[in-house]
Amino acid sequence: MNFSELFRLSGLLGRFSPDGKCLASCVQYRLVVRDANTLQVLQLYTCLDQIQYIEWSSDSLFILCAMYKRGIVQVWSLEQPDWHCKIDEGSAGLVASCWSPDGRHILNTTEFHLRITVWSLCTKSVSYIKYPKACQQGIAFTKDGRYMAVAERRDCKDFISIFVCSDWQLLRHFDTETQDLFGIEWAPNGCVLAAWDTCLEYKVLLYSLDGRLLSAYQAYQWSLGIKSVAWSPSSQFLAIGSYDEKVRILNHVTWKKITEFEHPAIIANTKTVVYKEVEKSPSVETERLSFPPARALAGFLFSTQSKYDISQVPVPLQYVKPAADRANPKMGVGMLAFSPDNCFLATRNDNVPNAVWIWDVQKLKLCVVLEQLCAIQAFQWDPRQPRLALCTGNSKVYLWSPAGCMAVQVPMEGDFPIVSLSWHPNGDSMALLSKDNFCVCYLDREEV
């Protein structure tokens, strides 16, 4: 592995372009666009205020910068650096902004979710969508970019509207059997829309493109319900993470549960491999160094290194009992992600914050548990192969694949707590992000 130098960053705003050629990052009110391979600065843009959100257009030709405090969105062109666009929502305010799939329309959600405004960069026309619902995941596009679903709330009832993205015409409008709709997400094939209720009511509803209710699933009642939802890339499975520390898998034929994965505090199955992170002190003999090492190298040489040991089962994991008297308890399955080849599912149970569970989807059983020394901050699958990268808030990056796993210390001077990471679209590098800095990790061809 090779690592770039550290670059300044604010707001964890570092994004690779969809075509993989560029890397955009923000420093306060400046947007810096670099070449993804050489990290040479290609463009430097100055916005009107501190940038709070950035997003690339689907064709990688434009970048949207949202400044929610000012109610302003600025759009920059990579092909024509002199061209730029400013959208000011004025007194209506701004709480969210995103691109449409064609990369030529911008959807802005106003304060108090009064409306969504659709701005066209080509014709400068404006369309309005009324009554969008204030929820975690209220807008969803199909993968092919043809349709958009919007969660709505009117007259104290939940609705979903489906629009055609080419002309923003309403295709279907129907009410949902939810108490308080929390999120919607299309299956990758664009045929089924999943909608789920607030955590106070366990309910998942599956709708067809024409608004028909295909199935409703409820695992239990009178307890905290759904915490996370993820579709498999093949659209064959819907994984539902719940507050009861279980993941339930629904199949795409009958929409019934085919299995459920439990997350016990003790791993007892002898067929499960448990990798435990252990720290080892550096074994550098300083008197054998013919010269004093540079500060950056010294920090790298003398920092504690990590490696993985395979633990003998049964293995007790570090279990955290949630505080019963506080809101938003840290319990249940809060993170879910399928591998791109559909073979593995990675999960994190918030009661066991230091562990990542990797399930074999074909055999429907647990195959690997990674037990870290610190709490998992983020994990993400390589977009091209079954390889998982994760970070735990220290200056190390961890990789797992079916061949094994490894921990790599980022050779940086000073503190570099990695709290987020992002793979390059072709999987041969990734951006490692801390609150104030970022670097790019390049994987060797043999590793790729």
Automatic annotation (TrEMBL):
Give the matching SUPFAM superfamilies. Tricorn protease domain 2
Q: Which InterPro entries match?
A: Centrosome-WD_assoc, WD40/YVTN_repeat-like_dom_sf, WD40_rpt
Q: Would you say which domain of life the source belongs to?
A: Eukaryota
Q: Which GO terms describe its cellular component?
A: microtubule organizing center; MWP complex
> PANTHER family from the xrefs?
WD REPEAT PROTEIN 8-RELATED, WD REPEAT-CONTAINING PROTEIN WRAP73
- The identity of this protein, by name, is WRP73 protein
Species of provenance: Bucorvus abyssinicus (Northern ground-hornbill)
